[in-house]
Amino acid sequence: MSKKAVKIIGITLAAILVIVAGSYLYLRYHILKSKDFAPDNSKAKSILDLTPSLIAKLKQVVKDGSNGLYVLDINNLDVKLSENKVFISGIKISTDSLALKLLDSIKLAPDAIFNISSKSLQVDGIDLNDILNPSSIKLENVFLIDPEIKIYSNPKPYNSKQEADTTSLYDKIYKLVPYFSASRIFIKNAQVTNYNVPKKTSQTYKGIDIYLNDILIDSTTRFDRDRFFYSKNATINLKNFKIPTSDSLYFLNCDSINISTSANSLTATGISFQPRISKETFNKTVNIRKDFFNIKANKIVLYSPDWWLLAQHEKLIAAEAEIFHCELSDYINKEKPAKKFELHNFPHQKLLNLDFEIGVKKIKIHDLDLTYEEYNPLSGKSGILYFTNTTGEILNFTNIQSNIAANSNMVFDVKTKFMKQSQASIKFIFNLAKPKTGDFTTEVYGSNMTANLLNPIAEPLGMFHLKSGNVSELKMFTKGNNSGTHSKFTLKYDDLYIIPLKKDDEKDDELKEKKFTGFIANLLLIKKENNSEEPRSYSYDVERGEYPNFFTLNWKAMLKGIVKTIGAPEKLAK
To answer: I want to staple 394 with a disulfide (CB 3.0 to 4.6 A). Which of 32, 363, 464, 481 is the partner?
Structure first.
């Protein structure tokens, strides 16, 4: 779950606590006098009706508790002790702009303010013991229907210099409410909008449902890591989660996020990282060489997460995760001029630069399909590499320094089908202890590849056609970093015959065989086979150069090994 989702849930629960706790506290003590808010006795049913005074006092509580920042409005409050119920309708908590300016002038304004409104709040379980007991609030059911929460984020420079607030919710409320419990809290169909004031942008989250059972906030649960937001069991659903990226090129979408503490899992479904424009539009609007990504996953499940760290410290720690049926595609157009790429953009460097701490011991991968497409202006065509039915695991997926000190290697180890047919295995080992240099190693093994299998890549990208040829084994071991790679490569093959290609002058969308050049090349340059017990192996370097991302760099290292082994010109690997 994202930091924003955690904040949304926290604010929603805190809002309920402010209203409910305030109501019960002042019901107990009958302290109904308020200095700033006059009761609206015109709505009183009789001279004995204390509801207007109670509403006025609740307004006073919210104002005093927020240093005047927030104002509470309640349309109606109905206390029915005979039915053990309290009904509140037309709830609204808004910001006092003058108070905000005053707090800002003395450097006490928060980085974010929120406005809350809801049609109704119902509380079940109030009885005479609750009113007479000065040290506890014990409720049965709390229902909050259709709340709307607006968060205005406007970070203050003076707050960034202060130490982070590490106090628990209990630390903040125990003087007001030493003991708070509820059998169940239901929040139905919440809508949250987060406004980034400096950037003048906003994000809206709809259809948030929260169900909490056995809630207890007291000294015994202050640091209870087995509870989620102080509840024994929780189910939280976030629907249609959607966030635009900072460059406005993509949306991060999620159909639903479900948290179940009884199952001890977090499940996200319908996840996608999708471009906001088509590939054709992307090619027209982007003037530099840039990757065009598209990522989809049916389901991601997180097992045994640390709810306490997630809720209190916004850290995602879990024992295990699973990814089910993920499709990842990457397209790059080499017709575009190469840009000065970001140097530290390898996967582990991106992970280490996140502002959200994460630590998952094992991630199981089920049925991942990876597609890499590259447009070659020399051929006027795209070559597509397919890695399908991929299964495996990622070990030590973390950016937490204590975890890295214990184990510095993050391992990506999978088995896949190359070009949808040939079995292959790929293993990446990322050195998390060297984020500046980006050290990694790669191990690739493949077997049983035919000419027909390789031609869809060789023709558009290498500008040659494999008339015949069979690969029995491919092995590559690579050490790399930000500067480039050093590889040891072995390719076992036989019956190789290649024909160079060129653009057809008469048909722009077709390639034409250079048969005579091919005859000379196969006679003098091309090595027909390398299938002995001790086959030729090559060691070589590939400079980072114009290869902006991790996948492209490794693909070019493999392509260079292929052309060196068969005796083709190395320019074919560019």
So the answer is: 363
Residue predicted with more confidence, 310 or 130: 310
Range with lowest mean pLDDT among 231-235, 332-336, 532-536, 544-548: 544-548
Q: Rounded CA gap, 244 and 239, in Å?
A: 16
Helix or strand holding residue 166 (H, E): none
Ordered DSSP codes for 27-60 = HHH-----SS----GGG-SSTT--HHHHHHHHHH
* pLDDT tens per residue across span 267-291: 999 999 888 888 888 888 888 888 8
Tokens of 355: 């502002």
Contact 288/310 with Cβ under 8 angstroms? Answer: no
In 3D space, the residue among 424, 356, 360 whose CA is nearest the CA of residue 387 turns out to be 424
Write the CB contacts of 104 (distance below 8 Å, at least 6 apart in sequence). 156
Give me the numbers of helices (H) and strands (E) for the chain, helices first please. 13, 22
Give the CB-side neighbour count of residue 198, counting CA atoms within 13 A.
7
3-state secondary structure of 146: coil
The residue type of 420 is K
Three-state DSSP class for 515?
helix
Distance from C-alpha of 496 to C-alpha of 489, rounded to nearest angstrom: 18
Tokens 């960034």 — which residue?
Answer: 160
The DSSP result for 549-572, as a single string, is SHHHHHHHHHHHHHHHHHT--GGG
DSSP 8-class letter at 458:
I
Residues β-bridged to residue 272:
253, 296
pLDDT per residue as tens digits for the range 371-421: 999 998 888 899 999 999 999 999 999 999 999 999 999 999 999 999 999
Kindly provide the b/e burial profile for residues 64-92, where b requires at least 16 CB atoms within 10 angstroms of the residue's own CB. ebbebbbbbebeebebeeeeebbebeebe
pLDDT given at position 298: 96
The answer to whether residues 398 and 358 touch, using CB atoms and an 8 Å cutoff, is: yes
Beta bridge partners of 364: 322, 393
Give the number of other CB atoms < 10 A from CB of residue 491: 25
State the maximum Cα–Cα separation within the chain, in Å, rounded to a whole number: 110
Q: What are phi and psi of 379, to 5 degrees?
A: -100, -20
Residue 308, classed as helix, strand or coil, is: helix
- Residue 311 neighbours by CB under 8 Å, 6+ apart: 6, 9, 10, 228, 229
Helical (H) or strand (E) element with 7: helix 3-29
Dist CA 304 CA 394 (whole Å): 17
Q: Convert the pLDDT of each residue in 358-375 to its tens digit.
A: 999 999 999 999 999 999
Q: How far apart are CA 169 and CA 150, in angstroms?
A: 21
The average pLDDT across 129-144 equals 70
Give the pTM: 0.76
pLDDT at 132: 47
